[in-house]
Design goal:
- By secondary structure, this protein is an alpha/beta fold.
- The protein is 44% helix and 15% strand.
- It has two domains: 194 residues, NAD(P)-binding Rossmann-like Domain (Rossmann fold); 215 residues, Rossmann fold.
- The strands form two sheets. An eight-stranded mixed β-sheet has the order 3-2-1-4-5-6-7-8, with helices on both faces. Strands 11-10-9-12-13-14 form a six-stranded parallel β-sheet.
- Strand 13, helix 17 and strand 14 form a beta-alpha-beta unit.
- The site of uridine-5'-diphosphate-xylopyranose has 19 residues, from helix 9.
Length: 429
């Protein structure tokens, strides 16, 4: 099949590369010349394990073609996916301007029969607007059907999430579109949820908001555990063994970040409000998430007292491990608060230093983890990189001015840390 992706962010690029690898001819349309030129050479602008190899392999095999032009790729395609960003607008709603703009350009270039499908997370009802734009802008004789095929991939494990998803959701009112999309997804062996537009769109928001809710719940239990002297990790392990609850997305920490959860929780609150339903449960999910970030700062203040000119070393900046993405990373809020208190910050992250430098100023970025310990009054771990688990803490202790550690991801054994002479604080322990 010939397919086109508009957008080469995490969703667009990963899904395009996977479909190319499955033997389809895949065009990827971008709008920045330099990025498209780099992608043509197989240089990937984001860090995602395995992605660069997959892109290079399929560019070489001429199955993955990067371009700035909507023509001729759209007219040649059986299916066109919209995978552009939907950031949060000032109102809290998703900003749909790019999605609607590309819909018009797609419409103008349609030829023969084409299925246009959105991968971008858009609020219920948007797809009807896109459908109308396509119908109004398409040339005479072109036929178009419309579908919502939301994406559930996680950064850091995006390729395996795409090749081995828990389910594939296809929302469309057209049988022809449904059949074509089923055919495209056939080599990916996953249960299908076949439904209408609105349901498909809401499945995506409802899934992300529910996972965010689990994390905020874990963080609330962690807070309570600290107050009661319980061990949150055992409590959460204990509840996760109940199959009805499940053990995933129950790790307490500095709160959820990234390009999806914060944005999608806000958008769902806003969608509900627009429909006269105050989704106060999700407002509390957001509140707890902010508290979880502030709680790390509260622990730092309690440990150091006056924060002015205290040296704090940060291990991990990305919103989670195995990515260089800093969007809505807890590290941003936490470091800003520490800097407001007058603390001097040094930091190391294995992949996210360049992306962090664009959003976090006045930081002494270090070349390796051990360097952040140099003369530090406190170390705070904010991302669960595997290499941080392997660190030799006797070396770290010798480099520090005072051996204080706040382990925002519960990576270390509190007893061992205390034995080494650290004042150790985890989350919920
Ligand atoms: C998420 C969804 O998982 C994915 O299905 C959707 O398509 C996009 O959004 P992603 O943002 O890449 O994926 O990361 P995810 O692994 O879900 O983590 C999101 C945030 O939650 C991170 O900040 C992570 O550190 C945090 N988290 C996750 C926790 O704090 N505790 C957990 O137990 C799990």
């Amino acid at each position: 099949m010939t397919i086109t992706f508009i957008g080469h962010g995490y969703v667009g690029l990963v899904t395009a590369a996977v479909f190319a690898d499955l033997g389809n001819t895949v065009y990827v349309i971008g709008h920045t010349k330099e990025k498209i030129e780099s992608l043509k050479r197989g240089i990937v602008p984001i860090y995602e394990p395995g992605l660069e190899e997959l892109v290079k392999k399929n560019v070489k095999a001429k199955r993955l073609i990067f371009t700035l032009d909507y023509s001729p790729s759209i007219s040649k395609s059986d299916i066109v996916f919209i995978a552009v960003g939907t950031p949060t607008a000032k109102t809290g709603d998703a900003d749909l301007s790019t999605v609607l703009e590309v819909a018009e350009k797609i419409g103008q270039n349609l030829k023969g029969y084409t299925v246009v499908a959105t991968k971008s997370t858009v609020p219920a009802g948007t797809n009807k607007r896109i459908k109308r734009i396509l119908e109004e802008s398409k040339p005479q004789g072109a036929e178009v059907d419309y579908a919502s095929v939301p994406e559930f991939l996680r950064e850091g494990s995006a390729i395996s999430d795409t090749t081995k998803p828990d389910r594939i959701v296809i929302g469309t009112e057209s049988k022809r579109a449904k059949d074509l999309l089923i055919k495209l997804h056939k080599p990916i062996n996953a249960p299908l949820v076949l439904t209408n537009f609105e349901t498909a769109e809401l499945i995506k928001y409802a899934a992300n908001a529910f996972l965010a809710l689990k994390i905020s719940y874990a963080n609330a239990i962690a807070k309570l555990s600290e107050l009661l002297g319980a061990d949150a990790l055992r409590v959460l392990e204990g509840i996760g063994m109940d199959k009805r609850i499940g053990n995933m997305f129950l790790s307490p920490g500095p709160g959820y970040g990234g390009s999806c959860f914060p944005k999608d929780v806000r958008a769902l609150i806003s969608i509900a409000k627009d429909n006269d339903y105050p989704f106060s449960l999700l407002e509390e999910v957001e509140n707890i998430n902010h508290q979880s970030r502030r709680d790390i700062v509260r622990k730092a203040r309690k440990t150091l007292g006056d924060m002015r000119n205290k040296k704090i070393g940060i291990l991990g900046l990305a919103f989670k491990a195995n990515t260089d993405d800093m969007r809505d990373a807890p590290a941003i809020d936490i470091i800003n608060l520490l800097q407001n208190d007058g603390a001097k910050i040094s930091a190391f992250d294995p992949k996210a230093m360049d992306t962090a430098a664009a959003v976090l100023k006045d930081i002494d970025y270090k070349k390796e983890a051990y360097e952040v310990a140099e003369g530090a009054d406190l170390i705070i771990v904010l991302t669960e990189w595997n290499e941080f688990r392997e660190l030799d803490f006797s070396i770290i202790k010798n480099k520090m001015k005072s051996p204080n550690i706040i382990d925002g991801r519960n990576l270390y054994d509190s007893k061992e840390m205390t034995k080494l002479g650290f004042t150790y604080q985890g989350v919920g322990r």
